[in-house]
Amino acid sequence: MTDNYDLWKELHDIARATDNDEGRVLEDLLKTDEMLVGIESQRLRSYCVSVHLEPARDLDDFGTLLLQKPLSDIEQDFDSRVESHLKPSDPTPGNDDDMSRRAVKWVCDDLYRLRWGPTQVPIYSLLEDFRSLKPDQRSRFLDIALFYIEKGVPVDGKDVSATTALTHSFSIKPTFDLEYAQVLFDAGGDVNERNRYGSTAAHEIVQLLTDDPQSKENATESFQWFLSHGGNVDVADSDGMVVRDLCESICVFMPGFMKAIDKEDERRAALKGSCCTFCGMQNPKLLVCSRCMKAKGVVIKYEHVLSSLDCSLSSISNEHSFIQSML
User: Does residue 234 sit in helix, strand or coil?
Assistant: First the structure.
């Protein structure tokens, strides 16, 4: 664990000890997946910081398989799961290839739904934890993740705080793993995904609580990675905190954050009209951001618009103008 994470955890322990019991109790919060504000947000956050997955206690047989066995055993387990779906008579007509594809999809869905530990981490977050737990086997766990990605297990699974493996991988609390982050991003992960506190990974990154040079360097590199992969610094969390404002408030302590923002602002301004106004990503076939865009509490969901679709720029502009009028 980094000094930054240890201090962060200590502050949350203090917050938990001084909890005034307002709002719903933790047990009720764990039964929902809604976004939280105020003391309820703090209550869930303190819980997630104070508890951790313990392999001896929290892993089932499959989790232990992932932790201990080589990729060949993982592949064999996957094939066995597919075979088990093929054995019963399939009521849906189709050829063998169709049945095989459906079986693979069923297995991928099953793996996607699996969770472990007190914070209910999904499979890619579990593999990420293993990369930290056994650093000498990081490549093995990466290969396992790549295998499941290739098979079609989605990478957007969330824990009880609605945090994805991608967010955990580069938020520096406690993980700084840009190699793993890039793999998850390439597989469809969204750097602007918001958790139950309304925060993106950038909210976690910029709330740096240490003067440790290595932690500051990691935070700056993670923040730059966030921006270069479509990160938006103008999204507010559920308590109204905006990343850009946070960076401005600590610019004396961490000038690198605002320098990175200014540089990215200049790049996006130069590309105005040819890059997404939300994430700044540039793609000749991309008209608007394909992610769920959550800004100021309004959810604006667009899809990548390919040239084959009958959707004009003017209609998108009109829809965007209507939404802006609501903000």
Answer: coil
Instruction: Give bridge partners of residue 164 from the DSSP assignment.
Output: 158
Please name every residue paired with 121 in a beta bridge, in sequence order, or none if there are none: 116
From first to last of its 327 residues, what are the pLDDT tens digits of the chain?
Answer: 445 455 445 544 544 554 667 899 999 999 999 999 999 999 999 999 999 999 999 999 999 999 999 999 999 999 999 999 886 555 555 567 888 999 999 999 999 999 999 999 999 999 999 999 999 999 999 999 999 999 999 999 999 999 999 999 999 977 899 999 999 999 999 999 999 999 999 999 999 878 889 999 999 999 999 999 999 999 999 999 999 999 999 998 899 999 999 999 999 889 877 778 778 877 644 433 544 343 333 333 333 333 333 333 333 344 444 344 444
The string of DSSP letters for 30-98 reads TT------HHHHHHHHHHHHH----HHHH--HHHHHHHHS-HHHHHHHHHHHHHHHHSSPPSS---HHH
Largest CA-CA distance found in the chain, in angstroms, rounded: 67
Beta bridge partners of 237: none
Q: How far apart are CA 112 and CA 152, in angstroms?
A: 10
The 8-class DSSP code of residue 5 comes to H
* Packing angle of the helix pair 178-186, 138-151 (nearest 10 deg): 10
Beta bridge partners of 310: none
HSE at residue 267, side-chain half, CA atoms within 13 A, is 15
